[in-house]
Amino acid sequence: MLNSPLLTVHEVADLLKVREATVRVWIQSNELRAIKFGREWRVDREDLESYLNAHANRPAD
């Protein structure tokens, strides 16, 4: 988990081309696993990949 830096909500939103509020909704609804540091949320890249795979409309190759 600590092999790569954790992503901020802003970075996740930028990568996925969605609003930061959307990412926060995913986190608050426990759809996207995140870690809270003070007032900020951080997302591990593996957790983001798992979230995306779980919400894909076709099976992964």
Tell me about this structure.
The chain has one domain. The model has no long low-confidence stretch (mean pLDDT 92). The protein has helices at residues 9-16, 20-28, 45-54; strands at residues 7-8, 35-37, 40-43. Helices cover 44% and strands 15% of the residues. It is α+β, with helices and mostly antiparallel strands. The chain has a three-stranded antiparallel β-sheet. A hairpin with a 2-residue loop joins strand 2 and strand 3.
Which terms would index this structure?
3 helices; three-stranded antiparallel β-sheet; alpha+beta; 61 residues; 44% helix
Write the layout of secondary structure elements.
Elements: E1 7-8, H1 9-16, H2 20-28, E2 35-37, E3 40-43, H3 45-54
Antiparallel strand pairs: 1-3, 2-3
Helix pairs in contact: 1-2
A few lines on this structure:
44% of the residues lie in helices and 15% in strands. It is of the alpha+beta class.
